[in-house]
Write a structure and sequence with these properties.
The protein is of the alpha+beta class and 189 residues long. It has 6 helices and 7 strands; from the N terminus they run αββββαββαβααα. Helices cover 37% and strands 21% of the residues. The strands form 2 sheets. Strands 1-2-3-6-5 form a 5-stranded mixed barrel. A two-stranded antiparallel sheet has the order 4-7. A hairpin with a 5-residue loop joins strand 2 and strand 3.
Length: 189
């Protein structure tokens, strides 16, 4: 019993010396896709974060899965900090994610060819240079001759979804086949 009491006291003293997770640090608990992660705050709130200034390929696109895997490799399970706290129209926090070693996750994705600079929303002058570097070195998605930007992919996909399927029209040959099948005499076409 005395040994257990000493062990508990030792553990409490050891834990008292540990730094708690700083308030502005979050644990990455889920990778939704290449440019969207879920983090856990110190007060146990789940927060969805959209990486600022970049756009990764969609899951259905070439390199979409690779972008998600690369994001996971860099940050899943890690304690990260956020730079920025804007909200997008979906209620997600839009921010730059700073990795434990000080690297910027958003920059790493672009530098290694797993994301485009999202020019419509980017306020970061470094992203254009990082994208150019990835293009010149044919990294990641730049291995393809003509990679399709995710914003164009989404626009084309939504156009195709909005098209109503055309009713199949019977051609004269099909009608003739039905007439002969049922032996309908003197059908007029």
């Amino acid at each position: 019993m005395k040994k257990i009491r000493l062990l508990i006291i030792f553990c409490l003293v050891a834990l008292a010396g540990c730094d708690p997770m700083p308030e502005d640090t979050y644990k990455v608990i889920k990778i939704k896709d290449g440019d969207t992660i879920e983090i856990l705050s110190r007060d146990m709130q789940n927060i969805t974060v959209r990486l600022a200034g970049i756009d990764c390929p969609e899951k259905a696109q070439d390199f979409g899965t690779a972008a998600r895997q690369y994001t996971a490799q860099l940050c899943f399970g890690q304690n990260v900090t956020l730079n920025g706290s804007d909200k997008d129209r979906y209620g997600r926090t839009v921010a730059y994610v700073i990795l434990p070693d000080g690297r910027n996750l958003n920059h790493e994705l672009v530098r290694n060819g797993y994301a485009w600079e999202y020019k419509a929303y980017s306020k970061d002058p470094e992203l254009a240079g990082l994208e150019q570097y990835a293009r010149e070195n044919r990294l990641g998605l730049w291995q393809d001759e003509n990679p399709v930007e995710p914003w164009n992919f989404r626009r084309n996909r939504s156009k195709n979804k909005n098209k109503k399927p055309r009713k199949k029209r019977r051609h004269k040959q099909e009608v003739v086949s039905l007439v002969s099948l049922y032996n309908i005499p003197d059908a007029v076409f």
